[in-house]
């Protein structure tokens, strides 16, 4: 069956997928694969398959924001993917975790609109424990600052006139903010798949710490390489468990 939006044939999809926002990053991740094949590049969704240390996986970009990303997650699961790992970027809430740190998201605050149209208020967006544990262990092995905990998923990247309670999220213990993880966790739970996410921090979301947003620094690029390596090694661990 041809997935209508990803434009990928379900027969080509393995059971595990690494997903990321940026189609360019999908290619960067896919460069680590053996027998790499590009399946499709449809809208913001660029799909590759290949093997890493003998394990077949897909690498697919999902674009920016929950509604578009949800289309990708839903179609991958429809196509037979049962484990999804998001490799992304996020803004930090804490000076203890500066740009270049990695965060494994164990759960996401649903500060998005999409998941409200999928599940009732209060329904939690949580990672699969095995996926998070594998990601965390693999990330620690890569070195650098690594932390696991709660992230926030928002829709608005640029602020309008409504205050977003970043201070409260931070005081309550959230580590970072991004735009797709809650959608991933809710959809995985709804459809019986397992999911986890790792993000490289690319700046501060906290107004007290905020500097000019520049995600294109060497320190961020190195963190992205570490999270890619961690995700690939987690895939191997999860495939053999
Ligand atoms: O998740 C967020 C979004 O996809 C993080 O980076 C993007 C915005 O630059």
From TrEMBL:
<protein>
    <recommendedName>
        <fullName>Uridine phosphorylase</fullName>
        <ecNumber>2.4.2.3</ecNumber>
    </recommendedName>
</protein>
<dbReference type="GO" id="GO:0006218">
    <property type="term" value="P:uridine catabolic process"/>
</dbReference>
<dbReference type="GO" id="GO:0005829">
    <property type="term" value="C:cytosol"/>
</dbReference>
<dbReference type="Pfam" id="PF01048">
    <property type="entry name" value="PNP_UDP_1"/>
</dbReference>
<dbReference type="InterPro" id="IPR035994">
    <property type="entry name" value="Nucleoside_phosphorylase_sf"/>
</dbReference>
<dbReference type="GO" id="GO:0004850">
    <property type="term" value="F:uridine phosphorylase activity"/>
</dbReference>
<feature type="domain" description="Nucleoside phosphorylase">
    <location>
        <begin position="16"/>
        <end position="229"/>
    </location>
</feature>
<dbReference type="InterPro" id="IPR000845">
    <property type="entry name" value="Nucleoside_phosphorylase_d"/>
</dbReference>
């Amino acid at each position: 069956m041809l997935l209508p939006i990803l434009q990928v044939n379900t027969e080509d999809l393995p059971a595990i997928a690494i997903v990321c926002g940026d189609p360019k990053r999908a290619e960067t991740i896919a460069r680590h694969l053996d027998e790499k094949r590009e399946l499709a590049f449809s809208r913001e969704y660029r799909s590759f398959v290949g093997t890493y240390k003998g394990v077949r996986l897909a690498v697919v970009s999902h674009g920016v924001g929950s509604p578009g990303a949800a289309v990708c997650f839903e179609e991958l699961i429809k196509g037979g993917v049962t484990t999804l790992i998001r490799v992304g970027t996020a803004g930090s809430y804490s000076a203890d975790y500066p740009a270049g740190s990695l965060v494994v998201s164990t759960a996401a605050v649903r500060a998005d609109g999409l998941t409200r149209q999928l599940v009732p208020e209060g329904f939690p967006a949580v990672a699969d424990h095995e996926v998070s544990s594998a990601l965390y262990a693999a990330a620690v092995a890569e070195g650098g600052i690594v932390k696991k905990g709660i992230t926030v998923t928002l829709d608005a990247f640029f602020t309008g006139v409504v205050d977003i309670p970043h201070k409260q999220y931070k005081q309550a213990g959230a580590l970072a903010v991004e735009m797709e993880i809650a959608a991933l966790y809710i959809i995985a739970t709804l459809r019986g798949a397992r999911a986890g996410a790792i993000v490289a921090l690319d700046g501060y979301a906290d107004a007290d710490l905020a500097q000019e947003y520049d995600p294109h620094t060497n320190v961020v690029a190195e963190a992205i390489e570490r999270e890619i390596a961690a995700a690939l090694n987690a895939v191997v661990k999860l495939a053999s468990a």
